[in-house]
Amino acid sequence: MAASGGRPPLRPFRRLSGLLLGRGAGARREAGGSEPNWVRGSGQAVLARLRASAVVQPDFLSLEEEETLSRELEPQLRRRRYQFDHWDAAIHGFRETEKSRWSEPSRAILQRVRAAAFDPDQPQLPLVHVLDLDQSGYIKPHVDSIKFCGSTIAGLSLLSTSVMRLVDSHDPQQWLELLLERRSLYILRGPARYDFSHQILRDQESFFAGRKVPRGRRISVICRSLPEGDRGPDLPPPLPPPPC
Ligand SMILES: O=C(O)CCC(=O)C(=O)O
Questions:
Q1: How many CA atoms lie within 13 A of 54 on its CB side?
Q2: What string of DSSP letters covers the chain?
Q3: How many A from CA of 191 to the centre of ligand 1?
Q4: Percentages (nearest 5) of helix, strand, coil residues in the chain
Q5: Range 151-164 average pLDDT
Q6: How far, in Å, are 19, 75, 211, 225 from residue 238 at the CA level?
Q7: How many whole angstroms from 34 Cα to the centroid of ligand 1?
Q8: What is the pLDDT of residues 77-110, one digit of tens each?
Q9: How far apart are CA 144 and CA 11, in angstroms?
């Protein structure tokens, strides 16, 4: 992450997917079939392959819970400026922070996220990543760095619905799109996390199953598992799952 205003940089979570930069998925044939209304894919094979590893739970948050989180985050985010020219170019029009201290109601919400997304004994990053995307902001295709993130990523979407696209890093014809409705939870694990890049589409490209999904400002609240195995010399020893 770029340092600004003298703050320490955040973990460089993202590794751009060079294969996919500058390439859209082209004219895409979609398959949905028996999939839930918030998952589309290039074909039945990819849908089956990622069925257990790219999961969306709509309405995970109540309106009140969304309000609780966004009210708590707003003052902290407002102190930062949106960045439109980030040095690693993985993301455009955003501000972000990592947060460890939460109010009691927010802790309870995050505990629900952790229970839904992680195995009970899966070590997790104690800091929660908060990403605020401007209405014009977007995230380019990337794979989260294996140095800073383990096999599971769980994200809440606040304020705006968006479309997340996953593309197979070895075969760009294989893709999946997730409709991330406001107040939903998504979970990427295993193959969806390691073998596919993920991105959040900009407003002009924000369509799902042929229908426009208008993008507004979106805040995501993301919990990640700790990297497995050798986590590098500059990371602290593993922590048990945080109480949140
Ligand atoms: O905002 C999201 O839900 C995804 C964030 C993301 O891809 C990242 O921080 O690497």
A1: 30
A2: ----TTPPPPP--EEE-TTTTT----S---B-TTS-TTEEESSHHHHHHTTTTEEEETT-S-HHHHHHHHHHHHHHHHTS--BSS-TT-SEEEEEEEEE----HHHHHHHHHHHHHHS-TT--B-SSEEEEEEEEEEEEEEEEE-TTT--SEEEEEEESS-EEEEEEESS-TT-EEEEEE-TT-EEEEEHHHHHTEEEEE--GGG-EETTEE-----EEEEEEEBPPPS---TTSPPP-PPP--
A3: 17
A4: 20, 35, 50
A5: 98
A6: 33, 31, 44, 10
A7: 27
A8: 999 999 997 666 789 999 999 999 999 999 999 9
A9: 11
What pTM value is reported for the model?
Answer: 0.85
Closest Cα partner for 224 from 151, 142, 167, 156?
151
- Which residue, chain included where needed, has tokens 């924000």? 206
Ligand 1 neighbours, Cβ below 6 Å, are 13-14, 131, 139, 144, 155, 198, 200, 220, 222
The pLDDT, as a whole number, for residue 163 is: 98
Which domains, ranges and CATH numbers included, belong to the chain?
39-224 (2.60.120.590)
Q: Residue 126 and residue 10: Cα distance in Å, rounded?
A: 14
Q: Of 187, 67, 19, which is closest to residue 116 (Cα–Cα)?
A: 187
Residue 195 pLDDT greater than 60, yes or no: yes
Average pLDDT value over all residues in the chain: 86
Q: In ligand 1, which atom is closest to the CA atom of 180?
A: 3
Ligand 1 center to residue 144 CA distance, Å?
Answer: 9
Distance, in Å, from the CA atom of 23 to the CA atom of 14, rounded to the nearest integer, reads 18
